[in-house]
Amino acid sequence: MSPHPPFVSAVVLVVEDDNLLRMLATDILEDEGLTVLQAATADEALPILEGRDDIGVLFTDINMPGEMDGLTLAAHVAERWPHVRLVVTSGRQWFTSDQMPDAGQFVQKPYRPRQLVSAIAHAD
User: Fold this and answer.
1) DSSP structural state of residue 65
2) What is the pTM of this model?
3) Nearest-5° angle of CA 66, CA 99, CA 26?
4) Which of 29, 44, 69, 101 could crosslink 75 through cysteines, CB 3.0-4.6 Å?
5) Can you say how many angstroms the Cα of residue 91 is from the centroid of all Cα atoms in its chain?
6) Is there a contact between 84 and 57 (Cβ–Cβ < 8 Å)?
């Protein structure tokens, strides 16, 4: 049994342009019993969000190719899908969770599995 608080939804959308990091995050979260959907960019994430109503958490990198970065995606999700928890990560920029849209969590790269799971469990 996991020592972490229960998750609002067992479905997490991971948005990360680095294939290896996306697979690592997916493995960490699936090991916690979560269902994980994946997108390489914010542009790929939007149709997934539009097509499903069971996504409970968005975990996104900030710096990605495409028309929208991860912070813009998180702000858009907070406005359009307010029930979705937000967790944002970056290895190039540093933020506090207070600076995240909609009471989201920030996790600095490189993160440990425990940090990622805790951030997702505590995102509001």
Assistant:
1) S
2) 0.89
3) 55
4) 101
5) 14
6) yes
